[in-house]
Design goal:
The complex is a heterodimer.
Chain A lengths: L2 H7 L3 H25 L1 H11 L15 H6 L12 H27 L16 H25 L1
Helix pairs in contact in A: 2-3
Chain B lengths: L3 H29 L12 E7 L2 E6 L12 E5 L17 H7 L3 E6 L12 H20 L4 E6 L1 H12 L4 E7 L11 H8 L11 E2 L1 H11 L6 H11 L4 H15 L4 E2 H11 L5 H4 L3 E2 L2 E2 L9 E6 L7 H5 L1 H4 L4 E5 L3 H6 L3 H13 L4
Parallel strand pairs in B: 3-4, 3-5, 5-6, 6-11, 11-12
Antiparallel strand pairs in B: 1-2, 2-4, 7-8, 9-10
Helix pairs in contact in B: 1-8, 3-4, 5-6
The chains are: A mainly alpha, B alpha/beta.
């Protein structure tokens, strides 16, 4: 093949530019296709636009000020009524204590010594004492309240 | 007027720029549409215990069998991030490597706290979740004392636990675990600047993930700027897709922090924050129990990372002051890379040697 024939076969700059535009269209279509077919893709793309490849969930962001203002008081900082959460957490603690009891019984049954902390209990600090006293008052108030309800 | 040849060269350069930009976007598309090990752990495992949001996982071998009869190792990750940093990807799993070296490995997944968990405090984690996990491992394996590997805040929980129940811990490995809260630059200092001292113990809130994330971002210069992050990602898109999938798994760990119980943070700050520093002063408490670090007589390996901005190495290596027999290992590199990055092999190998060494 002569040099002239080779030159004639190589695409011109304009042809290459048109081809490049076609490729861009294909890339854009691939993104659009994924947006339509894959629910997670928009979340992943949004993360990438924040510079993160975090998968599966949106990048952690503080809620907008309007959303915070619209939220019920209970889900904002400084909950007004958190009794249900306190009860739920107390149930979690009880679940753990029951497991501890089961472990201790099993260990006693197997003749193994149940594990105890290596150190004696700490002397309570003044603030700890105040907390305990405050909790005691709360519990006592709650009992009185419950009594009133029953009556 | 621009000569025709020069004009053509400039157009060629523009076409090349266009081609490279398109190639990056195609690679990004490929990565974003390919499933991977996103937060599910890399090694097959079975759940052997659950409590509240906690899952205790036991790693299985390639035949789906537990490595029964081998020395037990319990990994305790940080409760404010996801557990799978210790089991990131096949071939890049710290826990998987230890298991393959002949140990019966268990991993705690603390899960994602919800509103009621804001009341969880230090005793709930140390004397509750960690203690019961250790007891469950002991019960399953029949070993009275097991090896414990704590990472970051999980290391703090492990250290406190080992001091309270030393007879149940055979060997203790602490990874990037701050002991000296007065060392400037760590998470306690950021928390101090962000007003964590104002976090209420009595009326705690569930600290949102975005807020926890912002503390970590403050410690890593550049990572809190969206422009900087986008620019970094754009540069990375030249990497092969397989490498980008690894990067994505790591990014999923780094960016997917979980909300934190306010009561735990308030207590951590009150005990270990700047100026308090109860671990070094020997005045730490877990509930009503005094933590006596002198009770720690089992072999201890403490690992710090040279470029760790969250737990600066000086604050980590300070364990030598309160546990003098602790072996100190300082590795080059940053925090995550030390555990699961390309430089992690040194840590894995040393840990396996430490765990396997006969007790002298």
């Amino acid at each position: 093949m002569t040099i002239d024939a080779k030159a004639a076969k190589a695409p011109s700059l304009v042809e290459r530019w048109i081809e490049d535009q076609r490729e861009w269209q294909k890339t854009a279509m691939a993104y659009l296709d994924s947006l339509v077919k894959n629910d997670d893709f928009l979340v992943h793309l949004g993360n990438a636009m924040r510079g993160s490849l975090l998968a599966g969930k949106p990048y952690p962001a503080a809620p907008a000020a309007s959303a915070v203002a619209a939220a019920p008081a209970a889900v904002q900082d400084g909950p007004v009524d958190d009794r249900l959460d306190r009860v739920l957490f107390a149930l979690h603690e009880m679940q753990g204590q029951l497991t501890d009891l089961r472990f201790a019984l099993d260990e006693l049954g197997n003749g193994r010594k149940a594990t105890k902390p290596a150190r004696p209990r700490a002397k309570k600090t003044a603030s700890a004492k105040a907390r305990v006293a405050k909790r005691g008052r709360k519990t006592s108030d709650a009992r009185k309240g419950a009594g009133r309800t029953r009556r | 007027m621009i000569p025709e040849e020069e004009q053509e060269r400039e157009l060629e350069a523009l076409l090349e720029l266009s081609r490279r930009g398109r190639a990056k976007l195609e690679r990004l598309h490929e990565v974003l549409t390919t499933p991977g090990h996103y937060g599910t752990g890399a090694t097959p495992s079975q759940v052997v215990y659950t409590e509240n949001k906690l899952r205790l996982l036991r790693l299985l071998d390639e035949n789906g069998q537990a490595r029964a009869g081998r020395p037990a190792v319990l990994f305790v990750p940080a409760p404010v991030s996801r557990y799978f940093i210790v089991d990131l990807l096949p071939g890049r799993s710290f826990a998987g490597h230890v298991a393959a070296a002949g140990f019966d490995v268990f991993v705690i997944d603390f899960g994602t706290p919800t509103a009621e968990d804001r009341f969880a405090d230090l005793p709930y984690y140390v004397d509750g979740l960690v203690r019961r996990s250790v007891r469950m491992v002991s019960r399953i394996t029949g070993q009275a004392a097991i090896n414990v590997v704590g990472y970051c805040l999980g290391g703090t929980l492990s250290l406190l636990y080992a001091a309270l129940y030393p007879e149940t811990v055979a060997r203790l490995v602490l990874l990037t675990t701050m002991v000296d809260g007065d060392v400037q630059g760590g998470i306690a200092w950021v928390a101090h600047r962000m007003g964590l001292e104002g976090e209420s113990y009595d009326n705690p809130r569930l600290v949102p993930a975005a807020e926890v994330k912002s503390w970590f971002e403050m410690l890593a210069p550049g990572s809190n700027s969206v422009v900087g992050r986008v620019s970094d990602l754009w540069e990375r898109l030249d990497d092969p897709a397989a490498r980008l999938r690894d990067v994505r798994t790591m990014a999923t760990w780094v960016d997917d922090v979980v909300p934190a119980p306010g009561r735990l943070l308030a207590e951590l700050y009150r005990q270990f924050g700047p100026g308090r520093n109860t671990l070094l002063k020997g005045t730490s408490t877990v509930g009503n129990h005094v933590v006596e670090l002198a009770a720690i007589r089992m072999p201890v390996l403490s690992v710090s990372a040279e470029k760790d901005a969250i737990a600066p190495p000086q604050g980590v290596d300070a364990i030598k002051k309160v546990v003098p027999h602790a072996e100190i290992l300082r590795l080059p590199g940053g925090r995550g890379g030390t555990v699961a990055g390309r430089t992690a092999a040194a840590l894995w190998q040393r840990t396996v040697e430490f765990l396997a060494a006969p007790r002298g």
